[in-house]
Amino acid sequence: MPYILIQVTREGVTPAQKNQLISGATDLVVNVLDKDPATTFVVIDEVDTDNWGVAGRSVTDLRNNA
Amino acid sequence: MPYILIQVTREGVTPAQKNQLISGATDLVVNVLDKDPATTFVVIDEVDTDNWGVAGRSVTDLRNNA
Amino acid sequence: MPYILIQVTREGVTPAQKNQLISGATDLVVNVLDKDPATTFVVIDEVDTDNWGVAGRSVTDLRNNA
Amino acid sequence: MPYILIQVTREGVTPAQKNQLISGATDLVVNVLDKDPATTFVVIDEVDTDNWGVAGRSVTDLRNNA
Amino acid sequence: MPYILIQVTREGVTPAQKNQLISGATDLVVNVLDKDPATTFVVIDEVDTDNWGVAGRSVTDLRNNA
Amino acid sequence: MPYILIQVTREGVTPAQKNQLISGATDLVVNVLDKDPATTFVVIDEVDTDNWGVAGRSVTDLRNNA
Questions:
Q1: Packed helices D15-33 and F15-33: angle between N→C axes, nearest 10 degrees
Q2: With an 8 Å Cβ cutoff, is B1 touching chain F?
Q3: Cα Rg, chain E, nearest whole Å
Q4: Strand B41-47 vs strand B3-9: parallel, antiparallel, or unpaired?
Q5: What is the pLDDT of residues C5-63, one digit of tens each?
Q6: Is the dihedral of CA A64, F8, C47, B10 positive or negative?
Q7: Band of the pLDDT at A65, cuts 50, 70, 90?
Q8: Are F43 and B3 inside 8 Å of each other by CB?
Q9: In Å, how far is B66's CA from the nearest CA of chain C?
Q10: 3-state DSSP call for residue D52?
Q11: Which residues contact A47 (CB under 8 A, 6 or more apart)?
């Protein structure tokens, strides 16, 4: 009964991409750990670029200065 | 000083229901573990149905094909 | 399909208390939100008192100076 | 490669304050643990006051009765 | 710069399986979202079966009565 | 009432360093957001190097091949 959290910046992830993340992450734990897909949860958390920092700066700032 | 995260799909949870979740979860750790309610946090995280997967499919998809 | 995380300090929580937390948290979302218990996860995360801070001090330190 | 989650109520945190949280949290793990800032993530999660409880009541309710 | 948390019960996950989870989850966000693997984190959290509940019972209990 | 999670690899973080992380993270939200330290939680989560991946490889593997 795995729980998988996928946290990414909110930059236009489409419903089709979300479906691919959900099915891919589920397949991963089914294939590697022989888990039951029926009790495998995948949660995608989209985070505003103002709210995600790397190397001490927000992604908003990093994108503007790329 | 417990921290309780309640993650559910965003499907019309009302403020009254949120209050019940907050008071109920707080009572639970007070009653079972004798914790101090003053330092018990409850955070409710509502997740879009596109962003929650179970059995390899999004909840949006599962609801549409129920 | 709720996911509930209960994070507490690691201070001798017994298996019986864990069972009460699991059943109580499950009942809460079943009763308040009419969720299906079969797809309700409860995860209890016990945290060493050195690793939990409140008011700027570790719980280890707070316990020693209580 | 630390990951730091800062969860606060959604009550008007400005982009400038977010930048201060990101740089401050990054500096903290760099200074204390000698971590590489390039692989230090900071995620700020703003939570509606209806969805955050303390002492068994929502922050919305606590603010209204302060 | 995705962050992926894979939470599973602690039931003998081997280092080789952990490597497969890490590489598989990284490949997933690289392939689906075109993310940079260099800033993709995967964290595996193994949870004791006493501390994981489903359907209102601990996994320890469910395994014993399977 | 902030909640701050600091997730790092388990590589010999000392109690003194943990205290610095706790006081530093608390000061940060007090100074930037004017939060009350009495209801500021800091949780440090140490993760085995086998269980943390970056760039598709475990930290154990990265350390061995540095």
A1: 160
A2: yes
A3: 15
A4: parallel
A5: 999 999 999 999 999 999 999 999 999 999 999 999 999 999 999 999 999 999 999 99
A6: positive
A7: confident
A8: yes
A9: 14
A10: strand
A11: A7, A8, A9, A10, D43, D44, D45
Closest-CA residue to C2 (of C45, C39, C43, C32): C39
Q: Is the ipTM value over 0.90, yes or no? A: yes
Name B9's bridge partners.
B47
Nearest to C2 by CA among C52, C42, C31: C42
For E13-62, the pLDDT digits (tens) are 999 999 999 999 999 999 999 999 999 999 999 999 999 999 999 999 99
User: Three-state SS across A2-60?
Assistant: CEEEEEEECCCCCHHHHHHHHHHHHHHHHHHHCCCHHHCEEEEEEECHHHEEECCEEHH
Q: Taking CB atoms and an 8 Å limit, are C32 and B24 in contact across chains?
A: yes
DSSP labels, B13-32: --HHHHHHHHHHHHHHHHHH
Helices (H), chain F: 15-33, 59-64
Domains and CATH numbers, chain B: 3-64 (3.30.429.10)
Residues forming a β-bridge with E4? A6, E42
Give per-residue pLDDT as tens, A6-27.
999 999 999 999 999 999 999 9
Residue with tokens 């894979």: E6
Element holding D32 (H helix, E strand): helix D15-33
Burial of B46 (0-12, 13-18, 19+ CB in 10 A): middle
Give yes or no for a contact between E26 and E37, defined as CB atoms under 8 angstroms apart: yes
Distance CA C18, CA E59 (A): 11
Cα C4 to Cα B4: distance, rounded to the nearest angstrom: 7
Q: What is the DSSP letter of F8?
A: E
CB contact under 8 A, D3 and E41: yes
**From edge to edge, which strands make up the β-sheet containing E41-47?**
B57-58, B52-54, A41-47, A3-9, E3-9, E41-47, F52-54, F57-58
C28, F41, A46, F39: which is closest to B27 by C-alpha?
C28
The DSSP bridge pattern shows strands F52-54 and E41-47 to be antiparallel
Chain C positions touching E60 (Cβ under 8 A) are: 15
Write the CB contacts of C14 (distance below 8 Å, at least 6 apart in sequence).
none
